[in-house]
Every structure is written in C-alpha cells, then in structure tokens.
Specification:
The complex is a heterodimer of chains A (423) and B (489).
Chain A lengths: L1 E2 L2 H7 L9 E10 L6 E10 L2 E6 L9 E4 L4 E4 L1 E6 L37 H7 L3 E6 L8 E9 L7 E11 L2 H6 L4 H16 L16 H11 L5 E5 L2 H13 L5 E5 L7 H7 L3 E3 L18 H8 L3 E3 L13 H10 L4 H6 L3 H6 L17 E4 L10 E6 L2 E2 L5 H9 L13
Parallel strand pairs in A: 2-5, 2-6, 7-8, 10-11, 11-12, 12-13, 13-14
Antiparallel strand pairs in A: 1-10, 2-3, 3-4, 6-15, 8-9, 9-10, 15-16, 16-17
Helix pairs in contact in A: 4-5
Chain B lengths: L7 H4 L20 H11 L29 E10 L5 E10 L2 E6 L9 E4 L4 E4 L1 E6 L38 H7 L2 E6 L7 E9 L17 E5 L2 H8 L8 H30 L11 H10 L4 E6 L2 H13 L4 E6 L7 H6 L3 E4 L17 H7 L4 E3 L10 H14 L6 H4 L5 H6 L17 E4 L10 E6 L2 E5 L22
Parallel strand pairs in B: 1-4, 1-5, 6-7, 9-10, 10-11, 11-12, 12-13
Antiparallel strand pairs in B: 1-2, 2-3, 5-14, 7-8, 8-9, 14-15, 15-16
Helix pairs in contact in B: 5-6, 9-10
C-alpha cells in the first residue's frame, strides 16, 4: 500500500486552501465514536487538519475561528466504503465513464487512481451531504478481477486520493461466473490459478513466459493480496458462495478477505464472525433480485450485528458515483429494522475506516484523528436532516455544487432575467 | 458487478399519461367529447339496426378484483394527514364496509367496531406509486422476466402492460409493507409509444385481473429522448435522433386521427341507418384513438425541459392532453409551462447522472414544481424505492424548505397520495381520507417523514392487508414460499 497522506499531503497543502488555523465547532451534540460516547453541548477543536480536543470543557485558543453548531449534531464525516466517485460523470456515456473496461486484456493491474477525477461534479454534491471519505471501486468488465481501488476524500483537491492500491476487487457472484466462462466452478478455478500465478511471480514470467491465467502486470499487482498486505474485496451474495469464499481465505492465509454484497451473509453469520471476515452490505437490499439473493432481507444488518460480524453499510442499490450521499438514509433504515443507532452510525463512519485499516485516522472525533467533521441540523440518520458545515482535513468546504447552482438559477421561474444570465 | 440491477428497467423503460391533475377528479371519459365517443364505441343504446353496428369493447379484460371482507374499523387518537392538505391531531378515521365513513375528532365508534388506538402514531391515505414496473420486470430479474419493453418497433401502442404482469412478483408484498395500496404499472421507455399501462390494487392475486383497479382509466406510456433513439438508432432505423422521435410521434398521431375519424364516421352513418362497412380494427390505433377521444391518459417519460416543451406543442397540434411527465428531471426549469398546460410531473427526490438527459437533477425539483402551482408528485420507478416513498417525499420536502419554500408536512403528503390519484384518474375513489372514498389507509409507527417510521398496518378497501406484527397478515408470493427469504421483510 502506498500511503500518500501525511507529509506528502501537508507538502501539497500550499497549493490548496490554507489550513493552518484553529477551528472550534461549538454548541452541538458530539458523536465521538469513542469511549467518550455522546457529548451534549460539546466542542470539537481542530488544528492544522487534525482534531486536537473534544469535550464540553474545551479551551478555545485566542484567534480560533468559531463555528456555532446551534444545537445541532457534530459528527465524524461519513465514510462510504463502496463507491465509484470520481470515475463516472455520465454513466451511459462511455466517454464519461471509466468504471470498467470491457475489452482490455488487463485485470488486477487496472488502477482507479489513473482515472479518478477530483473535479467530478458529484464529489461536491456528495460532500455537501456529509460524505467526507470514500473507497472508490472499479467495476468488472470482461474479467473476474475488476482491478485496484483507492481511498480518498471529497475535498476536490488534486491530492484527494490518500491511498492507492488500497484493495483489489473481484467478482465471484453469478456475474463473475459469467466472465469466467459461464460457471461458478470456472470462476473459483480461475481465482485459484490467479493466486498461483501471483505466488510464482516473477519466476514463472522469466524469459518472456506467461502465467496460467494472469499477464505479468496483473500477477505483479496480485502479489500483495496473496501475502495479506492488500485486502481482497470479493463480491458474493449467495450463502453457499460466501462459505466458499471463507474456505478460500482459510486455504490462502494470510489473505485478507472482505465480503461485498452479502445478501445472504446473515445465513452464514457465525462462520463469518468466526473467520473475522467483514461484510460491506446495503441495508436496503430486500428483494430476491436474483437466485443469489433469495435471502435478502431488511433484517440482515441486525442479524449480522447480533452474530458479531463486522459490518459497514453501502449504497450498492443506489448509483455509487452519484448517490453515495444516501448512506445516512440507508443506515437509518437499518436502525428502523433493529440495529442500535450507535452501531448503524459507526457502520458508515468508523467501521469502514477500520475495515480498510485506517480506523486510527478516520471515523472518530478524538485527538489525533483527521478532522473530517460534519455539523448537522438534526439526527444525521433522519432523512429530513442535512449538514450545515462540512470540514475535510480540517478545512471548511463550500456548501455548493453544480446542482445547488442550478436550483438557484431556476428558483424564481417568474423572474424576467433571462436564465442564461443568472449566475 | 458494481451495477446493481435497479431502475435499469426504467432507464430502458418509460411512461406516458393523459388526464390533467386538475380534471383528474373524474374519469377522463367524463368530458363531453369523451362521453360521446365512449358511448359510440362501447354503448348499446342506439337507433334501429343497433345490433348490426360493430362496436369496440373497451374493457375486454375486466377487473375481477373483490375487496376482502371487512367489518367496521375505527382508528383513533392519531395524527392524520388526509392527503389533500389537512392535518388533524388526535383524530379518528371510521371505515365501514370498505369505505371511509367519517374522519374528524369527535367520531363515535359504532357498536361492534374494531377500535385501533393509534396514540402517538400517524394515519394517512394509502400510498400511490404512479410509476412502477413491478410485475413486468419482476424479481428475480432473470432473462425470462424481462417483460416490460416490447422493443420490436418504435410504436407498440398495441401492447398492454397487464398482459406482462406476473402477479407473483415478490415486490408487490414489499411495496405493501411500505404502505403502497395502489400502483400504476407501465411498459418501459424504449419505444416512442410503449403501450398501455394498468392501475392495480396492491393485493395478492392469482391473476392480474384480480388486481385491476375497477374502472380506472387506461393509460398510454410514451417516451422522449435518449431511450427510443438509442434503441432504434443502434439498429440503424428510425428514430435515431430527437427529431426522429418527434417525427415518429407525429406520423402516428396523423394515422390515429384518420383512424378515429373513420370509426366515428362509420358509427354516425350506421346509426343513421346507412349500409356501411366498419373500418378494420387496429390494436395500435385503438389505443391512440382512445387518447384522442380523452379516454386514455398519456403518461410520458421525459427528462429535459426543452423536450417537454416540444411535446406540449405536439399535444396542441393533435389536440390531446398529456396527463403527466414522468421523471421530469428538468421539470423545475419548465414548472410554469407544466402549470399552464395542466400537466403533472412525477419525479424522484434525488436521482440522476445515469445519462446525459438526466445530468441536471436537483434535490428541490419536486418542491419547486409544486411551488409554481403545477401538480407534482413522487414516483419510484424502482422495486426498492417504492417501499419508501414517504422517505423520498421527506427528502424533497426538507430540500424545498431549505431553499426557502413554505410547504407544510400535510400539504406535501399529496405528493404520494392525492396527486398521483388525480394523475391516474382515480381521485374520486382513493388518494385522500374523505367520506365515501375507498378505505385505503396506512397507520405509521411514527411521523412518516422520519427514517425510523414504518407502516404498522395497511388497509385496502377497509380490509387489513398488512400487519407488521402479525405474519398471518403478511402476504407471501408463490415464488418465495419455501425459499430462504420466506416471511422476511
């Protein structure tokens, strides 16, 4: 994994907005996601992009900028663990969609960082709804492996990808079976052969030789996955497929497996908990949309929780490049179906950070954490609530997007100013 | 695969409508021309020789829906949104023999009534979704279930969605748990004229006839924009462009006008005792004639403001009415045109970006259209979205308020009840809590604008069709019986 954060980010900061300032957000209900729990009438103090104090007796330094939460909620920023932010501007236009490559010969080596656009218009429209961090995924094209994903923030800055090569994504569901030649057996055999190629890399490729299934570049990209240094995120829904995935992880220790999809994960929850394999699941999936997801139910998050499985929520059923911003709504529905509020909120903040190995930096409000802070006018999981302020890396961001500009332009339809001159 | 199988049916599917909101409170056939035409086409009265006059049966696949037996139910101590802008605290709703008998604060429960204490809970009309593909794109989404788009020619006004509806779609029961009592199922949007839509009661049934909303007007799905031009352009046939789309509609309306005139002339001459032969029946033109005669409501899929304006001109050119623009992602840009032309807009709260014509969606769309005085409503176009239309309206309402619009909770509840009822021509029967209407009622566990609110009980025609606490009142489709998900919500 390449960590681009820390010194590199600070070095680049000179080209971005100024940050070196104390900012205190006061007078709010602070959700810390730590042992401090919920702090009523609390304050969060940020300095140079990092949280330095949280509590209701925080001393605000002279010269600090103060933001009054006006009795609202102050929370860590939302962390969306399964998105395509920055890859797609218009989904049906190939020229504006870099999520997948249907006719490439490459697979694991494909890296979303090469396409990610921090100026994609949906970065801002997601940020103003409280989303500050995300994992960005490639889609599978013609291969079982989609490629490598990245972690990033919604600042819109040039350095907004903080970690590239953060994980590798593979599809072992029915659609993965299709890309592997037409059956699940073929898909698993392909995966086994790919791991074998990676383990034999580079020796097998000496002298211009090729691997059994992977090209040289793809095998090289898979090496860190086989060694457990980079997690493998696997799309599977059917309970039987999830059990097969657990067996794969056992047989290929120390591989780090993350299940994505997981419609029937609750049916094998104890096995997942025992294997300590986390699940990325959309709480709203409850239709038997395919024969892989006959067990899909709104009760799944609560059942997984009860079994002790580590769960983070996704917006898999909403477009991941556009509506990752709906994550709080999805989490709220998990609460409506039995998940404790604290657990549901963690499932869209701290838990995804932990799953990606960055839970010591993101997802909580505690000294030392990156200052991704959102101020809301109410319970963030309520659909009628919205952010009033969003800080990314300790910098306050504009509460504006292309969509809000359009709304302003057409807000007064009877005004006689020509629309084209309203800007 | 990253792409979840949602709404894609809709992207390649579309809708159209005809009665305006303002006059949707009666069957569209009630206008004068419609009455005359309907009588001519379907009536049995007439002069001598009537038995020899060829008529067109307007209802050859009639509804067989019968409400489940229900007694007298009194829901009390509730906060009530009546669906037409009213709010009653500590109110009661009395349902007798399947119909709402009274609503207010000082209603006595008749002897023998089942009394439900809804203290702390909310009571509203049943939710109506004007844009659904349940049944025509059912779960599971296997290839054999792709029954919503007859993509064989750009005008398939002859196909009827009801002939594709699979009543065992598990999505119906999920929608019921979300408070949906009535839904309008449409063909997709891959064609200029996609075919007829059908309005259904959301009740378990072996047959679609057993779900059909009695006497609801037929609808015609039409589609603007990218979908038809992409489908046929990719085949190197017309329409391949927006201008091809318009030419395709207009050519069809010209044929439809001639067809209508030929039948009307035939009926007039035949009724006058002349020895005339009837025109040749044409299923496609039957539907278009129904639109021109005001009997069939046009529900039209359109995203862009300029395209809606073109369609409005076409509507005047051929003297018919578009009832509702569906999706109308840029409806906020032509809200005044919609209002002035009596056209409703059925929209999402916050979806777009999936294609170029959906590139300018704003969260305030629904509220701004409403504010301009046009008839606005939410729609799902999705098997998951239909389960939470209350939350979608909540988002649209709060976003509208944040840019300064003054809209009350009770006013906005029209967006998922009375406004879709008007746009489907069934507002006389449902869509609000008023004495005499069907007993379509939802008891919510909390304010339905809360993410945490769930439908506790759902009544259709006074019968308890869903009870969250009682598995015996939760339908399970044939498909789910014996499957892992049986009985789960």
């Amino acid at each position: 994994m390449q960590r681009l954060l820390s010194l590199l980010a600070l070095g680049l900061a000179a080209s971005g907005p100024a940050i070196a300032q104390d900012i205190a957000v006061t007078n709010g209900r602070v959700i810390t996601n730590t042992d401090q729990g919920v702090i009523e009438n609390g304050t969060v103090l940020m300095r140079d992009g990092v949280v330095v104090a949280v509590g209701n007796d925080v001393t605000i330094p002279d010269g600090a900028r103060t933001v009054d939460a006006e009795g609202g909620w102050i929370t860590p920023g939302i962390f969306a663990p399964f998105t395509q932010l920055g890859l797609i501007e218009v989904a049906l236009e190939d020229s504006a969609n870099d999520a997948s490559a249907s006719s490439t010969g490459f697979s694991v080596a494909i890296d979303v960082a090469d396409a990610f656009n921090p100026r994609n218009s949906y970065i801002a429209s997601n940020r103003i709804e409280g989303l500050t961090r995300f994992a960005v995924f490639p889609s599978t094209g013609g291969e079982l492996f989609a490629g490598q994903g990245a972690l990033g923030n919604t600042s819109g800055r040039n350095d907004s990808l903080t970690e590239t090569g953060a994980f590798v994504y593979a599809d072992l569901s029915q659609s993965g079976a299709a890309t592997a030649g037409g059956s699940r057996e073929a898909a698993w055999l392909f995966l086994e052969a790919a791991f074998d190629d990676a383990r034999a890399y580079p020796g097998r490729y000496n002298g211009g030789s090729e691997g059994n299934v992977l090209s040289r570049l793809d095998a090289a990209a898979l090496v860190d996955v086989t060694r457990g240094r980079v997690p493998l995120v696997m799309n599977v829904d059917r309970a039987a497929d999830i059990l097969r995935a657990i067996r794969f992880a056992e047989e290929h220790a120390p591989v780090q497996l993350i299940i994505q999809g997981g419609a029937e994960a609750w049916m094998v929850a104890s096995e997942l908990a025992e294997a300590d394999i986390p699940v990325l699941i959309d709480p709203l999936r409850n239709l038997p949309a395919s024969f892989d997801s006959l067990g899909a139910t709104l009760e799944a998050p609560a059942r997984l929780d009860a079994a002790g499985v580590t769960v983070a929520y996704t917006t898999e059923t909403a477009d991941g490049y556009f509506n990752a911003r709906l994550l709080p709504q999805h989490a709220g529905n998990a609460v409506a179906h039995g998940v404790p509020w604290d657990d549901a909120f963690r499932a869209i903040t701290l838990t995804p950070a932990e799953i990606y190995g960055v839970g010591d930096q993101y997802g909580a409000l505690a000294p030392g954490y990156v200052a991704d802070v959102v101020v809301w006018d109410g319970d963030p999981l309520e659909v009628m609530s919205a952010p009033t302020h969003v800080f990314v890396d300790g910098e306050e961001t504009e509460m504006e997007s292309r969509q809000t500009r359009l709304a302003e332009r057409y807000r007064d339809i009877e005004d006689t100013t020509p629309f084209g001159y309203r800007h | 695969m990253m792409t979840y199988m949602t709404r894609w049916a809709a992207i390649l599917a579309a809708t159209v409508a005809l009665a305006s909101c303002d006059r949707g409170d009666s069957s569209p056939a009630a206008d004068e021309d419609g009455d005359t035409a309907a009588a001519s086409r379907n009536g049995s009265e007439g002069g001598s020789g009537e038995s020899d006059i060829v008529r067109i049966n307007l209802d050859p696949y009639p509804s067989t829906y019968e409400p489940l037996p229900s007694g007298t139910t009194m829901i009390t101590n509730a906060t009530i949104f009546d669906g037409i802008g009213g709010r009653i605290e500590n109110g009661s709703v009395l349902i007798v023999d399947g119909r709402i008998s009274a609503i207010g604060t000082d209603i006595e429960a008749p002897e023998g009534a089942t009394v439900i204490d809804a203290s702390g809970r909310f009571v509203t009309p049943g939710v109506i979704d004007i844009h659904s593909h349940l049944g025509v794109y059912p779960s599971p989404g296997v290839s054999a279930h792709s029954d919503g788009n007859e993509l064989t020619q750009p005008n398939t006004a002859e196909v009827w969605a009801e002939h594709s509806v699979w009543p065992q779609d598990p999505g119906f029961a999920r929608a019921l748990a979300g408070g949906v009592t009535t839904l309008h199922v449409l063909p997709g949007s891959g064609n200029l004229f996609g075919g007829r839509g059908v309005t259904l009661r959301n009740v378990p049934s072996r047959t679609v006839q057993g779900m059909k909303f009695p006497d609801a007007p037929y609808t015609l799905k039409m589609a603007c924009g990218e979908n038809p031009s992409r489908v046929y352009g990719n085949r190197n046939s017309s329409p391949a462009t927006d201008m091809g789309n318009m030419a395709g509609y207009r050519a069809s309306w010209i044929r439809a006008r001639d067809y209508r005139d030929s039948w009307h002339e035939y009926w007039e001459d035949a009724e006058a005792g002349e020895d005339v032969s009837p025109p040749t029946r044409d299923l496609e033109l039957d539907t278009l004639m129904g639109v021109l005669d005001g009997e069939i409501l046009v529900q039209m899929h359109c995203y862009r403001d300029d395209q809606m304006a073109q369609v409005i001109d076409m509507m005047h050119e051929f003297d018919y009415q578009v009832t509702t623009f569906h999706h109308a992602v840029e409806g906020y840009q032509v809200a005044d045109l919609l209002r002035d032309n009596d056209i409703c807009a059925a929209v999402w709260a916050d979806w777009g970006g999936f294609k170029m014509e959906a590139y300018d969606p704003i969260r305030e769309n629904l509220a701004l259209i409403h504010e301009a005085g046009a008839c606005a409503m939410i729609h799902s176009d999705d098997g998951l979205g239909i389960q939470r239309l209350n939350q979608e309206v909540a988002k649209a309402l709060s976003d509208g308020r944040r840019i300064g619009l003054d809209i009350s909770e009770e006013e906005a509840f029209a967006w998922l009840t009375s406004n879709p009822a008007r746009a489907l021509g069934i507002f006389d029967e449902t869509g609000s809590l008023e004495a005499g209407k069907r007993g379509d009622v939802v008891i919510w566990s909390a304010n339905p604008y809360s993410t945490y609110a769930l439908a506790d009980q759902v009544f259709i025609d006074g019968a308890l069709m869903y009870d969250r606490s009682d598995p015996d009142h939760q339908p399970v489709s044939d498909f789910e019986l014996g499957q892992p998900g049986e009985g789960d919500d």
